[in-house]
Amino acid sequence: MIKGLYVAGTGLMTNVHKIDVISNNLANVNTSGYKRDTLEVESFNNRLFTRINGSNLPYKSGASKVSSESRNGEYTAQVEHGFFRVDTENGIDYSKSVKFFKDSDGYLRTLYKNVGGQVNPLQGDYVLGKNGPIYIGDNEFELDEAGNITSGGATLDNIVIQGSPNVIGTMSAGIRGYAVMTDFDQGQLEMTSGKFDLALRGQGYFNLSTENGTLLTRDGAFTINNAGELVSFDGSRVLGLNGPIEITSDSFTVNEFGEVIQDGEISDKILITDYTNVADLEKVGGSYFREKPEAEMTGEKTEFTGEVVQGFIEGSNTDAISEMIRLIEMNRNYESSQKVVTTIDDMIGRAVNDIAAV
């Protein structure tokens, strides 16, 4: 019963976190350039449960039989007898199935995909063999039906451990939200006819000079300050190739390449940055993003290949109806977990009182 209480409790906490994320999306449904967030959820490690006393359970013995398939360097494997082990930050996880690949350092890891479905080559948990993490190096490898990892005809390790007659099975301690991920899909472009309003069609980000350094945004609702500089709604200066964009003429236009044209001449070009991996960006509030430290970046900066559209701004990519549906679902899930907690608590109370009475 206690374990059930923990599982229901983690469900309650995860739902509260999900509700917070959804509520923030709804609060920013009309925020220009806002990108909706989602909470990624995973279960706690599955642990082996064994009987300490009493007779052994019926046990199916036999050699491990591993079935697997490989696609684009990603392996999916299942085992009939035994378990796979994965070394996570919370301890060893035991399971009947596992998805893994060879990382850029030559080790076998579980899949960790960034935003957009890209596999991060240096994230994920190590798949364990009998001798610990399995090192392949630069060589190709194969997984056979016995769970052996072979390379060049030699067996490197085995990724399956056998069960025992006392093993009941595996059980997780519940779920948790481990990361808030940002959906970088483009929002709908909205016409404003404002000559300082700009939108990006395609991937890319405006660069803003702020008190906290250079920040990135898709929010192109710009205006000019007292110094004649193009600025965002909070006064951050919009950067061009030559520094802050200066407005010196009423005949201000921006072409599809981001070139600023004043009095018939190109005076500057708006600095727009794109990234091969949007997971290299982290949200810093509202519609602003910042590059992660260089050591944590897995992609590269690239030139903007989209189109700049004047007189438009990009709206939030949050769909209010979809978020409201998710919010209702989370409230129902919360109520269900709450009922489970209440029921288990009542059962524990009755057990204590009845035992005390006896």
Keyword list:
flat; 2 helices; alpha+beta; 358 residues; five-stranded antiparallel sheet
Task: Characterize the structure shown.
Strands 19, 20, 23, 24, 28, 29, 30 and 31 form an eight-stranded antiparallel β-sheet that branches. With about 350 residues, this protein is α+β, with helices and mostly antiparallel strands. The protein is flat, with a radius of gyration of 27 Å. Helix content is about 20%, strand content about 40%. α1 packs antiparallel against α2. It contains two helices and 33 strands. The mean pLDDT is about 85. It folds into three domains: about 100 residues, no CATH class; about 130 residues, no CATH class; about 130 residues, no CATH class.
- In total, the number of domains comes to 3
- Give me the secondary-structure category: alpha+beta
What is the number of helices?
2
Mean pLDDT over the full residue set: 87
- Percent range for helical residues? 10-25%
Taking the alpha carbons of the first and last residues, their distance comes to: 21 Å
Largest sheet: 8 strands, antiparallel
pLDDT < 50 runs, ≥5 residues: none
- Number of strand segments: 33
Shape summary: flat
Q: What is the beta-strand fraction?
A: 35-45%
Backbone CA Rg: 27 Å
